[in-house]
Specification:
Layout (H helix, E strand, L loop, with lengths): L1 H33 L8 E12 L2 E14 L6 E4 L3 E6 L5 E6 L1 E5 L4 E12 L4 E10 L4 E12 L2 E11 L5 E3 L3 E4 L4
Antiparallel strand pairs: 1-2, 2-3, 2-4, 3-6, 4-5, 5-7, 6-7, 7-8, 8-9, 9-10, 10-11, 10-12
Length: 184
């Protein structure tokens, strides 16, 4: 009779141990979830048309089908997953047009990363095409280490690596090839 009581207690002990282990696993998953922060934008906008002004004068117009603002994260940024179309104006009302398939703007550094069929054209007929281009807003400076094609009235050049001022007055290019008209 005593042997029977010992064997009937074993299934009860196994059930209690299994339940306590399952309970610990559930608590561990809850702790993991509490350390996980959802990565969702603070705001989400469709068909954006933003006008930037300087001293009452329009300095730029940004158009995008989608804008996601992540100002609620430690390193805030604005994401344009469907690309941008920007028109920038200088003080003489000269325009520069910028298009890309994707863009991301980092608030703390002032850097804009343009990606996918990036194309910049000016009223003077200058055009730069590349797959990725960075714009430093603080210094009004563009740069890339990617391959590029630069076209202006003097000719067409190709290369890898270029940096230039927003108004195209200063251009530094590396590893270039092409035909350019000179005064010689």
């Amino acid at each position: 009779m005593n042997l029977l009581k010992k064997y009937s207690a074993i299934p009860v002990v196994i059930i209690v141990v299994a339940m306590s282990l399952l309970g610990c696993e559930s608590n561990f998953k809850d702790v993991q979830r509490s350390n996980f922060t959802e990565f969702i934008p603070a705001s989400d906008a469709d068909n954006v048309n933003i006008k930037y002004t300087d001293s009452g004068r329009i300095s730029g117009i940004l158009i995008s089908p989608k804008m996601l603002d992540y100002s609620n994260v430690a390193f805030p940024f604005t994401d344009f997953p469907k690309g941008i179309d920007v028109t920038m104006y200088d003080k003489n009302r000269k325009r520069t047009f910028i298009k890309s398939n994707y863009a991301i703007s980092y608030k703390q550094t002032g850097i804009i990363d343009l990606q996918g069929r990036v194309k910049i054209t000016t009223d003077d007929g200058q055009m730069l095409e590349t797959e990725q281009l960075y714009f430093d807003q603080k210094n009004d400076w563009f740069y890339t280490e990617r391959k590029f094609k630069f076209t202006d009235v003097k000719g067409v050049s190709n290369g890898q690596g270029i940096d230039f001022s927003k108004d195209f007055k200063i251009i530094n290019s590396q590893r270039i090839t092409g035909e350019i008209e000179t005064k010689e």
